[in-house]
Amino acid sequence: MTNPGGFLEPFLGSVVPWLYHESQFWTAFGLIGNLMFSLRFIVQWLYSEKRKELVVPDVFWHLSLWGSVIALIYALHVDKLPIILGYFFLPILYARSLILLSKGKRRGAKTA
Q1: Is 35 helix (H, G, I), strand (E, B) or coil?
Q2: pTM of the entire structure?
Q3: How far apart are CA 17 and CA 89, in angstroms?
Q4: Which of 52, 93, 94, 96 is most buried when burial is the number of CB atoms within 10 A of its CB?
Q5: Cβ atoms within 10 Å, residue 8
Q6: What does the pLDDT read at residue 3?
Q7: Do 47 and 55 meet the contact criterion of CB atoms below 8 Å apart?
Q8: Residue ranges per domain, the chain?
Q9: Backbone angles phi, psi at 43, to 5 degrees
């Protein structure tokens, strides 16, 4: 069963036909992305409670990146433009945050 009336399917359907077929896999995949993306706030809250101050641990950015990548892939599967646009730039932003985090750690290691 395909997703009728999709935005990208007319252009990508022949290239990646598996992306537009409904299955239980896609439901599970979407749930995993949503869980990862939501779990980042729980992790951040637990770290902050442990230290009794606001803390944004490195794992927050990793969960943000991979959760948004999975959510974007799922959005492409759902093939609805508002959902695609909602997730399109997030992986770029979170990847940049991880790059800055890595640079900061290297800079800190050089001065230590």
Answers
A1: helix
A2: 0.84
A3: 24
A4: 94
A5: 17
A6: 53
A7: yes
A8: 28-104
A9: -60, -45
